[in-house]
Amino acid sequence: MPQPSPSEGVLGSGTEPPLDGRRLGLALGMLVLPMYVALGAPSVALPAIGHALAVPFGATAWILAAWSLTSALAMPVAGRLVARWSPFRVLVAGVLVVAVCTGPVPVVAACRASWRCRWRSPRSRPSPWPASSSASPGAFPTDEGKPDMTAEPFEAGVTEAEIADLRKRLRRTRWPEPEPVDDWSQGVPLAYARELCRSWAEDYDFGFAERLNAFPQYRDTVDGLSIHFVHVRSPEPDAFPLVLTHGWPGSVLEFLEVFGPLTDPRAHGGNPADAFHVVAPSLPGYGWSDKPATTGWDVTRIARAWDTLMVSLGYERYGAQGGDWGSAVSGALGEVAPGRVAGVHLNLGSVAAGTFADPTPSELANLEAEKEMQRSGRGYSAIQATRPQTLGYGLTDSPAGQAAWIAEKFWAWTDNDGHPEDAVSRQKILDEISVYWFTASATSSARLYWESFAHFRDEVTAPSGLSIYPRDITRPSRREAERRFTDLRWFEELPRGGHFAALEQPESLVEQVRGFFRLVR
User: Fold this and answer.
1) N or C: which end of the chain has fewer CB within 10 A?
2) Neighbours of 34 (CB within 10 A)
């Protein structure tokens, strides 16, 4: 076979100038580098952005990006190695190298990084994970005994279309005739119901979601159900973890005024040693948590879910606090996780009244209040505990019905002078009503009564604290409380306040919580 003469190159012959390895490498490198910039750069940029936002991402994107860059830089070297190949072999090899190194690889890396970056993350917020924990914000390490969970950042919201629908429904309300009494003894007076609904449609700012979005929120799947929770980390390094649980007809919005003082006492005139890391979940079927599709979500199962959630966040020892259903769930937490729950503080101590042969004046007053509650105030719970589905059709379809159903409790259970807005502002009442309406949770929230009403007074053996507010629906004495709370370490009767302590008396509740947990944290 004839050999090429010195004047013949690998890409031509005769009078064509030879193209040596360096020039070939430069040509291939010039082809690769623009493609790397166009396709490979995102595979570096997107993980870098994700890292800056403290968003988890896989190492694959970094490896593939490095591969793309290395391939581009190595082209001059590769060119020298193939300088003596035939033109056809050089062309085929170049196309294959370019296709492999700068084709699908950076694109796949970019897509993976982009998907993992979760662009819907809230604005810059403190990480919900403890500084001492090795867990990333997105997942807890799958060590033995620790759940593998991934918390997704969340923000509440309401659309203009939903607001327009509400207003349309309110304007078309078919009102009943006025009550034949001059008080609230038959329920919410027509005049107040109409005024409240008028204000909801015309004056209310629909800002309940933004007020909640001022705090970090997440959703995570626990026991097959997606649970919404607020998680506010304290700036204090020795803060104690605390899970707050609301009740009915409340929501996590109840706690908006206590999040700051509990997590950052230094900024609110308190002692930094009293700081808490606060987790406030929405009960299953309430607010932005999922609605259970099967039965069985009673207070014990909810307590187990809360314990799973707290452990997934890196909290191996914590406290619990709550009122209404939150008191039942908090008490159950001490029973299902006694090794982790340091203590439970409640602002509702539901116990049996009239159990002593020598009742004190305060015990007699509590017994009379219990009898009156049974006579005129138990209708709502009897319906929700027996026929929540039937009730739900009216409340889910009629915003006026939903508003009246909830507003009546702000009259009956608060420390007011005859009008609910003496104790809680109209905006806060409408905030709570709006949560139930816009999440369509009237029926699902009522089912908790069907699931657990018989277990509301189960025994609590964990170290306990009880704060008694004078207009709450039950107000036991200490010796009455000790029959249910077998390790009662804190008991205090407050001068003002009712059932919604966090809304009515937030400063008082914060001091009560701080005082009790100084004993057990």
Assistant:
1) N
2) 11
Quick one: which H or E segment has residue 346?
strand 341-346
- CB 336 within 8 Å of CB 346: no
Largest CA distance in the chain: 123
Which tokens in the block code for residue 448?
């908790």
Cα distance between residue 356 and residue 478, in whole Å: 12
Backbone φ, ψ for residue 31 (5° rounding) = -75, -40
Query: Which two structure tokens, joined as six digits, stand for 218?
Result: 């997440």
Among 335, 299, 350, CA closest to 480 = 350
Phi and psi at 133, nearest 5°, equal -85, 145
CB 36 within 8 A of CB 68: yes
SS3 308: helix
Model confidence pTM above 0.90: no
Residue 119, Cβ density class (10 Å: 0-12 exposed, 13-18 middle, ≥19 buried): exposed
- At 462-501, the pLDDT tens digits run 999 999 999 999 999 999 999 999 999 999 999 999 999 9
Whether the Cβ atoms of residue 340 and residue 263 lie closer than 8 Å to each other: no
Distance, in Å, from the CA atom of 197 to the CA atom of 164, rounded to the nearest integer, reads 14
Instruction: Report the C-alpha gap between 459 and 351 in whole angstroms.
Output: 10
The helix (run of H) or strand (run of E) holding residue 89 is: helix 87-102
Instruction: Measure Cα distances from 492 to 247, 348, 508, 516 in Å.
Output: 21, 12, 11, 10
Six-digit token string for 313: 């966040």
For residue range 380-436, what is the model confidence (pLDDT) as tens digits? 999 999 999 999 999 999 999 999 999 999 999 999 999 999 999 999 999 999 999
108 φ/ψ sector (left φ>0, alpha ψ -120 to 50, else beta): alpha
Do residues 272 and 265 make contact, with C-beta atoms less than 8 angstroms apart?
Answer: yes
SS (H, E, C) 236-255: CCCCEEEEEECCCCCCHHHH
- Which letter does DSSP use for residue 39 in this model? I
- The alpha-carbon radius of gyration of the chain (Å, integer) is 32
Asked if residue 271 lies in contact with residue 510, where contact means CB atoms within 8 angstroms, the answer is no
Sign of CA dihedral 50, 51, 56, 57: positive
Straight-line distance from the first to the last Cα atom of the chain, in angstroms, rounded to the nearest whole number? 91
Q: How many other CB atoms sit within 10 Å of the CB of residue 204?
A: 19
Alpha-carbon gap, residue 44 to 252, rounded angstroms? 40
CB atoms < 10 A from the CB of 258, how many? Answer: 23
